[in-house]
Amino acid sequence: MTPAPLTGLRVLDLATLFAGPLAATMLGDFGADVVKVEHPTRPDPSRGHGPSKDGIGLWWKLLGRNKRAITLDLSTPGGRDTLLRLAAGADVVIENFRPGTLERWDLGWEELSEVNPRLILTRVTGFGQFGPYAHRPGFGTLAEAMSGFAATTGEPDGPPTLPPFGLADSIAALATAYAVMTALAARERTGEGQVVDLAIIEPILTVLGPQPLWYDQLGHVQPRTGNRSANNAPRNTYRTADGTWVAVSTSAQSVAERVMRLVGRPELIEEPWFATGADRARHADVLDTAVGDWIARRPRDEVLAAFEAAEAAIAPVQDVRDVMADPQYQALDTVTTVDDPELGPLRMQNVLFRLSATPGAIRWAGRPHGADTEEVLSELGLTPGDLKLLREAGAV
To answer: Are strands 314-316 and 245-248 parallel, antiparallel or unpaired?
Structure first.
């Protein structure tokens, strides 16, 4: 088999919940040898996050996939020395301790770069390594609130709305994986490693679009508009005759025109305000009524078929049951099956994208706490006697 593109890359994942570990997962999916380092008695909290089966956390099976799991107490002399030995042969370290924690353990950039000048130290924290908030506890929820996401999400007369999943953390994980690969590309030119400083509050602000630019130039503050858009209409969710929901988007003018012809309101296309998305958005009540009334008289399958025939953009509003049965997701193998020695066959999200020549793969799901400690540390040359001493000292 063709080696995966990141085969030979060694990543030490010291992070917990969720951005840093998810970034490491993405690197492992494409061949990196990811060593997950957890405290001997306080494992990554994701092992107990959310539902479990037979006492085994299911979120960990996803987040811990393609990682070898070891234990080290980095605050002990034995744990510190072992981590430095691991770092000497690694390419990337990902951590999310509060700023100054690694330095307190004598494991900061000065010590790590001394044993490995080519190392990429990736620091993922809520607020970054400096500034007035740097030492505050930071979670994705705070980033969703601070960034403007919550302020623009929800109905106009309702409260700011937070997502029911780790949105900011997941966006930060994608940015972290990108940052790591960028730093590795720079190392190819310079031969030297560097520090990546990623604040979870920043990537989500980037994906919110030009809000800072609008405010800077126009004083415009984006309001909450529910499922509507200030940039085009009709754009909303609509209830079908059989009680399900569909989402319609008309970002393109030609699509908006096709939708109005489909729902039997072609005269609206001739209105002067129909010519631009922003003007259509100001007449969303009229357009939503036209589209909503037409959809409400028909079952979902008929609505979807009619929109597809008219080349108008529509999608069913699906929950996870629908996703698992969706033929497009099935064709892409987006949710794939992984054999797990603890729980048997598991279905989970596949790797993020397909490469034609050097594809990624899920080699295994999340491993038990510390399952690979002996294997990984023996690769450093530690003997069974050395491991016994580390255990007695509480370092592993």
So the answer is: antiparallel
Residue type, 70: I
- Percent above pLDDT 90 for the chain: 99
Q: Cα torsion for 130, 133, 135, 137, to the nearest 10°?
A: -130
Nearest one of 265, 252, 269 to 311, comparing CA atoms: 252
Tell me the C-alpha distance between 382 and 360, whole Å.
31
With contact defined as beta carbons under 8 Å apart, do 374 and 68 qualify? no
Question: Is the pLDDT reported for residue 360 higher than 70?
Answer: yes
Average pLDDT of the chain is 97
Torsion over CA: 202, 203, 205, 210 (sign): positive
Checking if the pLDDT of 356 tops 90, the result is yes
In single-letter form, the type of residue at position 296 comes to A
Residue in this structure with the two tokens 């997502």, named with its chain if needed: 163
pLDDT of residue 1: 67
| C-beta of residue 277 within 8 angstroms of C-beta of residue 287 | no
- pLDDT reported for residue 18: 95
Q: Which residues are catalytic?
A: 169
Q: What is the 3-state secondary structure (H, E, C) of the chain?
A: CCCCCCCCCEEEECCCCCHHHHHHHHHHHCCCEEEEEECCCCCCHHHHCCCEECCEEHHHHHHCCCEEEEECCCCCHHHHHHHHHHHHCCCEEEECCCCCHHHHCCCCHHHHHHHCCCCEEEEEECCCCCCCCCCCCCCHHHHHHHCCCHHHCCCCCCCCCCCCCCHHHHHHHHHHHHHHHHHHHHHHHHCCCEEEEEECCCHHHHHCCCHHHHHHHHCCCCCCCCCCCCCCCCCEEEECCCCCEEEECCCCHHHHHHHHHHCCCHHHHHCHHHHCHHHHHHCHHHHHHHHHHHHHCCCHHHHHHHHHHCCCCEEECCCHHHHHHCHHHHHHCCEEEEEECCCEEEEEECCCCCCCCCCCCCCCCCCCCCCCHHHHHHCCCCCHHHHHHHHHCCCC
